[in-house]
């Protein structure tokens, strides 16, 4: 759905030029959700704007639905839905009026009333855009991105400013769209959002892709997952290690505190609890700790995503 190869985007000219995207390559598969993560200034927006046809690349190849987003813009726009992080609406336009206007620009739009109901915009349908709350503006932007039945949807921070209930409703809508075969690209500052929704994640920094893969692949590359529990001091950790799968480790980093490292799955958890039962050990505070996308991001960039 999207193919970007060796993309370079610069701002300014000559010696004062700033390289925002520096040889970046990524692919978006059909029917998938692809998340692009990176700290502020990493090149996310420049990459997305180039794929949307708002910016010409200084170098590299960009193909969206098999088309050049600049040269073939007229053919591409009816098939592409774009949710901007902010703006894109007239300050005096009413919410439902804005959605109906965008719907009329498409040959086979969604039912506006059903979309308004699904995104809980009915109560503010007659409210001018400038008077909408931040969350209502976000939901309106999502509605205008979806109303034309696009094949590919680009969502820039789709749940920023939403309350937890509205955020989860948006997640469910994204998952429904994927099941219907729609391809989605999203940028987000919420790690749990990327972990739940994304099939593929690209982490970018300083204009380059520094890691990519599914959430499971990325989280398995870092520090091993771990299982912690408390028990009597001086347990025979060698005996426990012998009962576990190859590659597992057992440590007692502090008296009575035990750490099991390795591929933490239901079988390993059952083995640990069975060993404890067989040896008369009551395992207290047993907890599984998994490497998260937040951990991966911090290790790769040294920065928090919200920085």
From TrEMBL:
Q: Which GO terms describe its molecular function?
A: ATP binding; ATP hydrolysis activity
The chain positions of domain ABC transporter read: 2-231
Quote the PROSITE patterns the UniProt record gives.
ABC_TRANSPORTER_1, ABC_TRANSPORTER_2
Q: What UniProt keywords are attached to this protein's entry?
A: Antibiotic resistance, ATP-binding, Cell membrane, Membrane, Nucleotide-binding, Translocase, Transport
Q: One Pfam match, by short name?
A: ABC_tran
Record's Gene Ontology CC terms? plasma membrane
Sorted alphabetically, which InterPro entries does this protein's record hold?
AAA+_ATPase, ABC_transporter-like_ATP-bd, ABC_transporter-like_CS, ABC_transporter_ATP-binding, P-loop_NTPase
Which PANTHER family does this chain map to?
ABC TRANSPORTER ATP-BINDING PROTEIN (PTHR42711:SF16)
Q: Please give, as recorded in its UniProt entry, the membrane topology of this protein.
A: Peripheral membrane protein
Q: Where in the cell is it found?
A: Cell membrane
In which domain of life is the source organism classified?
Bacteria
Name of the featured protein:
ABC-2 type transport system ATP-binding protein
Q: What biological process terms from GO does the record include?
A: response to antibiotic
